[in-house]
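Table S2 (continued). Query chain:
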Amino acid sequence: MLLYQPKDGYCYNSDTHILLSFIANIFKKYKNLNKNIIDIGSGVGVLGLSLKRDFCKLKLSFSEIQNEFVNFLQINLNINKQQAYIFEGNFLDTYFEFKFDIVVSNPPFYDKNVLKTPNTNKKIARYNDNLPLNKLIKKSYDILTNDGKFIFCYDAKQIDDIFYLLMTNGFNIEVVQFVHAKKNTNAKLVLIYARKNSNSKTDILSPVVCFDNLGNTSDSMKYIYAKSNIHSIKATI
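Corresponding output:
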């Protein structure tokens, strides 16, 4: 799949590939995914478009606050011959006229107190004061159907807040997977699948390890990248 992304703005990274693989593995057990899905903080559309490519019956929507990303998103929809609703503006302020079966997101999760980049595009895409976790979770619950699925990634160091906020806002945590840079290092990322009105026990999957001890890309990451099959071009529009 070919995607355009901004030359000087925020570009998607390995987190998106890993999240895509996590979501795809969850979706495999469903024979018919004729469902409404929204990608929150969609950027240029890599996550949503990849899922639509692999699960063609999905009814796709995007929510994106930055006009530049929306422009790239429209281009990427056209070149990949896909259609989707695009909700431009702040997700928290957006009125959605219908509910969704699935919400997916690679949201901004860097702590607001961390030294920030002066690049406005990157700043909005990276830092959680632009989309606080508690508000993301609450709004996601509100726009989901009764047994709706919420799948996202976040900073592993904030796992206590993640679990607390999900459970106090009516979600049951069904699947968790941690991502480590190398074996025997602390987790840097956590992948979460939560669902409304569910009583299932939580499955904790084997971790994803990105690099071997020599710093080379791990076999599991090579597989994830190959499965994503995304070719990106940086451009200015």
